[in-house]
Amino acid sequence: MPDAAPIALMPQLTGFTYAAGALQGARDNQEDACQFAEVDRAGTLPLGRSGGVRRSSTLLAVLADGMGGHAGGAEASRAACMAFVAAYEGSEGPLGERLAGALDTSNRAISAALARDRSLAGMGSTLIAAAFTPAGIGWVSVGDSRLLLFRNDKLYQLNEDHSLAPILDGLAALGEMTAAEAGAHPRRHFLRAALTGGVIELVDLRQSAFLLCDGDWVLLASDGIESLSDPELADVLATHAANEPDAMVAAVLAAVEAIAEPAQDNATVMAVRVG
């Protein structure tokens, strides 16, 4: 994670330009959901295309990746995403409290959906939400979707990964398995935490604003983006850093599609340009 200067030494950010898009990949259905909300006005950008470019001085971005089959996964991600946005917009107080409260509301929305329809048993969703303010960014995440910062041609992951991947990579670093074995492990993408309506085992909550700089790019991405290696993704971001967010989203998704992964998962990208 890049170093940050004290807030008092940083100017207020001048605004955020944003867009989103998605690929269905090799899946039979789309189980990702995403939504941007600016100030007190919310609107969902259509999945599968960028939906154009908009600019705002404050911004909330939410991405949910559902699981539990055709009906369950789509219902879980949609319910979690919509509940989070509504709860965050309807709350006041410190940034961390608003994010934590909205996460709890999202989890309860899944519980309520299960109570209404028991055929959805087993459904759940990962979730990542980022709140952009003139002072910086706060976030909350559960699961393996990624919050990425691209700054000065370097790519950083800001949030924690709640899959088994970092555990396996840690074992490889200790010499208990090879890096190749860790990368190919059949349970590498097994989730250690998700929203299922019950207790959430792991939560990554950034309560105070992480400092951003004009010229930064911030991406929220579901795990389908991992068909690209980090160096490959960084190359795409560097090539298109001067473009608008809709062009950036299109370029990233085109690069994922070009990999032609036979089992390509849904891939959703939300791109925010700072300044």
Element order: H for helix, E for strand: EEEEEHHEEEEHHEEHHE
For the secondary structure, the number of strands is 12
Q: Please compute the radius of gyration using only Cα atoms.
A: 18 Å
How far apart, in Å, are the first and last alpha carbons?
Answer: 20 Å
Unreliably modeled segments: 3-10, 40-51
Number of helices: 6
Name given to the CATH homologous superfamily = PPM-type phosphatase domain
| The CATH class | Alpha Beta
- Provide the spatial order of strands within the biggest beta sheet: 4-1-12-11-8-9
Residue share in helix: 25-40%
CATH architecture field: 4-Layer Sandwich
Q: What class do helices, strands and sheet pairing give?
A: alpha+beta
Overall pLDDT score: 89
User: Which of globular, elongated, flat, extended, rod-shaped describes the shape?
Assistant: globular
Looking at the structure, the CATH topology is Phosphatase 2c, domain 1
As a percent range, the share of strand residues is: 25-35%
Largest sheet: 6 strands, antiparallel
Number of domains: 1
List the helices and strands and how they pair.
Layout: E1 16-23, E2 32-38, E3 41-43, E4 54-56, E5 59-67, H1 69-89, H2 95-116, E6 124-133, E7 136-142, E8 146-151, E9 154-157, H3 165-173, H4 179-183, E10 204-210, E11 217-221, H5 230-239, H6 245-259, E12 267-274
Antiparallel strand pairs: 1-4, 1-12, 2-3, 2-5, 5-6, 6-7, 7-10, 8-9, 8-11, 11-12
Helix pairs in contact: 1-2
